[in-house]
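Session log. Operator J.P. requested a structure for one protein chain; no other inputs attached. Running the standard single-chain path with token output.
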Amino acid sequence: MTLDDQSTFDPVAATIADAVAAPGAKRSRRANFAGSVLPPLAVGLIILGVWYFISLVVLDPKRRFLLQPPHEVWNVGFADWDNLSTMLEGMWSSTKVAFWGLLIAILLGFLLAIVMSQAKVVERAIFPYAVVLQAIPILAIVPLIGFWFGYGFSSRVLVCVIIALFPIVVNTLFGLLSADQGMHDLFTLHKANRITRLRRLMFPAALPAVFAGLRISAGLSVIGAIVGDFFFGQGEVGIGQLLKRYANRLEGEQLFASVILSSALGVSVFLFFGWLSGRLIGKWATDSRGK
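Structure written below.
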């Protein structure tokens, strides 16, 4: 703003302009909120409608135990405190397993990715085995894990590590190798050592890819905890054992409620790492489409 502009500045006009713009901003926020909430809400209502239709119209009453209507799932699975408390205890047990499995997978994945990023020959030596580990069906090696390590807490954590490790390694390695070559040349010009280059250049550039891998692995760790608990019946009862128990007893309401809680746990950890990435890396974590 020039001196002439300042001399002709009208605070009343500016106030009126702000007042006129405010309703437009409010409408824009309402539109953004509606665009974010209404589509998933509409899809959810459609799913509930299809669920009711199949349960009450398609299925014979004698076979309705296969898919109980949503209100029965709510009444038996969530409104009954005895059933809900049992499922929440199982969820807490599975959450602990998923947490420790994810933590170990993060530490091990970061270590492998950093080592692989420092030398091409190391990457070529390790990466094929990481792919093989990811390609092995986890259900095929669960009996071996139980045979070698027992059927308790440690075996369940190991299943989580195996499932969650690969996305962390791949995404972290991709991020570390994505640093700009011009910046590498600048660090070389200043004779920066490997640790300085890794700490000040490669790791900051890798953060968006790192958090993408963490969000994937967080959900996979929950799946690993449930799968391990489903097959390892010893120790503290988790949600996987409850799923198996309810399925064997044909208790459809509790079974669906347990599935919903398991899904909620996976979505929660996914959203947590999404929120954490937004807090730590800001605009790098935003959607490139701008929607």
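Operator note: Residues 11-58 form the longest helix (48 residues).
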